[in-house]
């Protein structure tokens, strides 16, 4: 190459083998590549030519990443039942270049496989290049902490004691096994010599006595050693707890590094997300019924535990029904083949990066936020009622609506099979394994039907239940519920999973104002027929209801009759004073089983508290061939 060589020149020459060159010509760096035996020299003008002049060439100066420490606190938390998705958002420098955003001091409960990041910029020009996880183990500095130094020394001594005890334990076990082997061999050889002159009973007794004595000594040593092991283990655990409280023997620094490339001088928003353990929520309910007012209120709470190792301060909290620890797809159904059985011949005997559940959370982020207020919070609600306008006594004081929105229930957001409840205000929860926190999700008002249920066959008490539809947008997860009637607690229940629109039933205990008694009026057995004789038994039943309730009540009255399982036995019901219930579920499921159900209306009590009464009567007839034994007929 000469001085006359123009820097726009492309020179080509034949070569025997592919080569790659890089050299200086008059201070200009020249690169060379070989394609199919043709060596092409590329000058800097070609390397920096516009796309219209030549294709992009894969040569560029090496970029050095600038390390940036991300100091942003936790901004968002999505809480699952057993884990939590943490989000931290940091702004990158407002200049061009390659940046490594370092999110340090991550907790020990982190699941590194769930690390993910997103990069957003108003004008573009920012791209996510890499997300990686780093751990660095450093020894604790004990030079200025004599108490920690002494505790670590004592812990190491306790560790050596534990190792010595383990060796002693292994030695005892080995000796005991050896004595067992000797005992077995002695018994086998003695059995062979039994009855012969070669058997020496006195020597055999001495040998067995020696084995018994040695094993007894080993058992005593083992018992004493077990006591020492328990004591040394307790001491070791106490010293380990002390060392941990003083800072630990070593520290593990956990860091997530997000590499971002920026081609424009504008800051980008980098959000890091990861799952942590030792955190979650469980549903808990309080059901409050008011029969006189015809109301049913369900207080839907989240019982939150948070021991992830990170404090959540003023975070946006979302409670999710997704379960990222569960598999996302069902198991396959394997085929099952049937063939003619052929017996076996007789034997001759002789001598990732990623998490399946995280996608549900990401889908939730893109789901539209249906921010409509719950149905019970209406402008025309009764003053002074939950969610209504006015103060506790229905005062006309104007409401601060912006503040009221922050005190409102969580919003219900449905995305496929997952429901999420973002809270409308910032929440702070410190990491503490000794405490849990109850957070209100929603207060749901339902329109119930109150029904009394009497089963006088088993007891005379009459129970009250409330039946209502889940008319809210909230998905109720299975969980414990405390049930209140008026201001009194009447018991507990377990609420099943209830989707929006599902029917729910709550038992509210006994109503002492109402009583139901079952009476067998008559029971007769007669012989029927002339030639084909049969035995016929007839029962006449009556249920008497008495109510001192000040309002009319509806009672679901339940009894039974026997059901025949043999065509020789005929059982039928006759002369009912009131028709049985006609709802489809009863007719399909319960009536064929012999369950009798009436829906009975009972008036309010009379003047001077006189009980209102109602009676239901019916007859059951059972017949069978003469002298046929049956399994028994109940009264």
| Poorly predicted tracts of residues | 1-30, 37-57, 347-396
Instruction: Please give the number of β-strands.
Output: 28
Number of helices: 6
Query: What structural class do helix, strand and pairing data support?
Result: alpha+beta
Rg estimate, integer Å: 41 Å
How far apart the termini lie comes to: 118 Å
How much helix, percentage-wise, in residues? 10-25%
Strand order, largest beta sheet: 26-28-24-23-20-19-25-27
- Average pLDDT, rounded to a whole number, is 79
Assembly classification: single chain
Key terms:
635 residues; alpha+beta; seven-stranded mixed sheet; 28 strands; 19% helix; flat; disordered N terminus
Write the layout of secondary structure elements.
Layout: E1 12-14, E2 21-25, E3 28-35, E4 38-42, H1 44-47, E5 66-70, E6 74-79, E7 84-91, E8 97-103, E9 110-120, E10 126-139, H2 146-193, H3 201-245, E11 250-262, E12 269-276, E13 279-290, E14 295-306, E15 312-320, H4 358-366, H5 401-406, E16 413-415, E17 418-429, E18 432-446, E19 449-454, E20 461-469, E21 479-485, E22 488-495, E23 503-528, E24 534-547, E25 553-560, E26 570-574, H6 584-590, E27 595-602, E28 612-625
Parallel strand pairs: 5-8, 6-15, 13-21, 19-25
Antiparallel strand pairs: 1-4, 2-3, 3-4, 6-7, 7-12, 8-11, 9-12, 10-11, 13-14, 14-18, 15-17, 16-17, 19-20, 20-23, 21-22, 23-24, 24-28, 25-27, 26-28
């Amino acid at each position: 190459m000469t001085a006359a060589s123009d820097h726009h020149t492309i020179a080509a020459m034949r070569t025997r083998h592919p080569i790659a060159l890089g050299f200086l010509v008059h201070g200009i760096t020249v690169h060379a590549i070989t394609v199919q035996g043709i060596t092409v020299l590329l000058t800097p003008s070609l390397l920096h030519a516009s796309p219209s002049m030549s294709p992009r060439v894969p040569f560029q100066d090496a970029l050095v990443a600038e390390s940036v420490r991300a100091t942003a606190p936790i901004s968002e938390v999505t809480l699952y039942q057993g884990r939590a998705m943490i989000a931290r958002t940091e702004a990158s420098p407002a200049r061009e270049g390659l940046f490594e955003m370092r999110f340090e001091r991550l907790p020990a409960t982190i699941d590194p496989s769930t690390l993910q990041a997103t990069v957003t910029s108003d004008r573009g020009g920012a791209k996510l290049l890499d997300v990686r996880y780093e751990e660095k183990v450093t020894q604790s500095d004990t030079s200025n902490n004599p108490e920690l130094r002494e505790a670590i020394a004592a812990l190491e001594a306790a560790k050596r004691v534990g190792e010595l005890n383990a060796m002693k334990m292994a030695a005892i076990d080995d000796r005991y096994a050896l004595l067992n082997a000797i005992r077995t061999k002695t018994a086998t050889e003695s059995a062979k010599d039994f009855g012969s002159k070669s058997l020496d009973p006195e020597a055999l007794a001495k040998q067995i006595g020696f084995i018994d004595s040695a094993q007894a000594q080993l058992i005593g040593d083992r018992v004493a050693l077990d006591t020492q092991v328990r004591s040394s283990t307790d001491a070791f655990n106490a010293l380990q707890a002390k060392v941990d409280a003083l800072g630990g023997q070593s520290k593990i620094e956990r860091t997530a590094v997000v590499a971002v490339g920026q081609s424009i001088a504008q800051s980008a928003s980098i959000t890091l997300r990861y799952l942590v353990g030792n955190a979650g929520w469980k549903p808990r309910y309080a059901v409050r019924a008011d029969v006189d007012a015809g109301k049913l209120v369900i207080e839907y709470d989240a019982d939150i535990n948070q021991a992830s190792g990170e404090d959540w301060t003023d975070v946006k909290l979302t409670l999710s029904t997704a379960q990222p620890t569960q598999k996302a797809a069902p198991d396959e159904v394997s085929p099952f083949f049937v063939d003619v059985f052929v017996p076996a011949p007789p034997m001759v005997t002789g001598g990732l990066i990623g998490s399946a559940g995280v996608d549900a959370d990401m889908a939730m982020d893109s789901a539209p936020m249906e921010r409509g207020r719950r149905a019970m919070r209406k402008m025309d609600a009764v003053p002074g009622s939950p969610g209504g306008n006015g103060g506790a006594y229905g005062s006309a004081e104007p409401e601060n609506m912006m503040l009221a929105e922050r005190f409102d229930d969580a919003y219900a957001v449905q995305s496929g099979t997952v429901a999420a409840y973002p809270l409308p205000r910032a929440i702070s929860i410190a990491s503490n394994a000794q405490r849990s926190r109850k957070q209100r999700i929603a207060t749901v008002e339902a329109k119930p039907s109150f029904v009394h249920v009497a089963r006088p066959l088993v007891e005379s008490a009459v129970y009250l239940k409330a039946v209502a539809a889940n008319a809210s947008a909230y998905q109720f997860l299975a969980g414990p519920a405390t049930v209140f009637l008026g201001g009194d607690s009447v018991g507990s229940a377990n609420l099943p999973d209830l989707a929006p629109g599902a029917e729910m039933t709550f038992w509210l205990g006994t109503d002492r104002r109402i009583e139901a008694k079952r009476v067998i009026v008559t029971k007769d057995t007669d012989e029927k027929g002339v030639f084909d004789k049969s035995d016929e038994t007839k029962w006449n039943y009556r249920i008497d209801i008495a109510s001192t309730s000040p309002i009319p009540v509806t009672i679901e009255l339940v009894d039974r009759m026997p059901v025949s399982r043999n065509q020789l036995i005929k059982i039928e019901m006759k002369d009912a004073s009131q028709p049985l219930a006609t709802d489809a579920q009863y007719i399909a499921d319960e009536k064929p089983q012999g369950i009798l159900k009436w829906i009975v209306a009972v008036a309010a009590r009379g003047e001077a508290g006189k009980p209102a009464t109602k009676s239901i009567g019916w007859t059951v007839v059972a017949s069978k061939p003469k002298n046929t034994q049956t399994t028994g007929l109940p009264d």
